[in-house]
Design goal:
Layout lengths: L10 H10 L7 E6 L12 H10 L4 E4 L11 H22 L4 E7 L1 H11 L18 H4 L2 E7 L11 E2 L14 H5 L6 E4 L13 H4 L2 H19 L33 E2 L9 E2 L9 H19 L2
Parallel strand pairs: 1-2, 1-3, 3-4, 4-6, 5-6
Antiparallel strand pairs: 7-8
Length: about 300
């Protein structure tokens, strides 16, 4: 992982800027929560967001302003800040644009941010670390047509929207999974997690954890576009539909995320295999991966002992 560069603007300032720039869209309004320790912005999810907005007419995207840190501030302070800011972004856009639709994308810590904003934070084993919350109102959930989560540390094994070969839950398994069904979100979500993932599968591999864009990026784009088309290809007064090929579209997308700068290829069954420039997974051995998770656990223990 790369560590964040010093932030020039505070999270509160960035949130205020984002809220002041609301423009109601007839297409999808895509909100992106980046992974831990990526620089402010979209992170490694940028090519996914870019391809969704290019394939769904009259769409836009916005990143969630939050620390996305493990230390400075501690993960258990950073993640709730992200939840609060994402909640505000959803409410502000939903209230200003009641006829518009939203899609949410989150990676790693960003995936947990999305889950907690949607259905609330409910972690019986970490009640002193994470602030328990209730999630957003149903009227806002009804405006959300698709949700993508990759490497979610709050993953619970066996959920119907799971994609990947993991058979384990994450490091912070949520206890309120019934709300995925009761809110209707269960039909709108894809959550990607593979075996031995350091965070979403309680495993040992950081390389698995940061490899979902080349592996599942095209599938995620196709899922969101298909969900849009299932709405009739419309939001508000729009009548345009998106063309989904199960791939990233005609050109290569560039990610400025914090995971490296190499090119990777991504493919989807039944579609061409496009070359997509994304952040390549760095070669990090088990010792580095273990050091990261030990540091996170140590931080939580310290927090719980206060």
């Amino acid at each position: 992982m790369m560590f964040s560069a010093p932030r020039i603007l505070s999270g509160a300032t960035l949130l205020a800027v984002a809220q002041s720039q609301i423009t109601c869209k007839n297409g999808a309004h895509v909100i992106v929560a980046r992974a831990s320790n990526e620089p402010a912005g979209y992170g490694i999810l940028k090519p996914v967001a870019d391809n969704i907005t290019s394939m769904i007419p009259n769409s836009d995207s916005i990143p969630v302003p939050y620390p996305a840190t493990i230390f400075g501030p501690l993960y258990t302070d950073s993640e709730p800040e992200g939840v609060g800011n994402l909640t505000n972004l959803i409410k502000e856009y939903g209230d200003a644009c009641p006829n518009s639709k939203m899609a949410l994308l989150g990676y790693s810590q960003g995936a947990q941010v999305i889950g907690d904003a949607l259905i609330g934070a409910d972690y019986p084993d970490f009640q002193q670390a994470f602030k328990m919350t209730q999630g957003i109102d149903q009227k806002y959930i009804d405006q959300i047509f698709a949700v993508i989560m990759m490497g979610d540390p709050a993953n619970v094994n066996g959920q119907p929207f799971h994609v990947g070969n993991s058979t384990m839950s994450g490091n912070f398994p949520r206890a309120n999974t019934a709300k995925w069904v009761s809110t209707g979100l269960v039909q709108k979500i894809r959550s990607y997690c593979d075996a031995n993932d350091l965070f979403c599968a309680h495993g040992k591999s950081l390389n698995v954890h940061i490899g979902y864009i080349p592996e599942y990026g095209p599938n995620a784009v196709k899922f969101v576009v298909d969900k849009w088309n299932a709405l009739g290809g419309s939001s508000g007064n729009s009548t345009g539909s998106a063309t989904s090929t199960g791939a990233y579209g005609g050109g290569a997308a560039t990610s400025t995320g914090g995971y490296g700068g190499g090119a990777a290829t991504a493919s989807s069954p039944g579609a061409a295999s496009p070359t997509v420039a994304v952040g390549a997974a760095p070669e990090m051995g088990p010792s580095v991966a273990h050091a990261v998770i030990i540091a996170v656990v140590a931080g939580l223990v310290a927090r719980l002992s206060l």
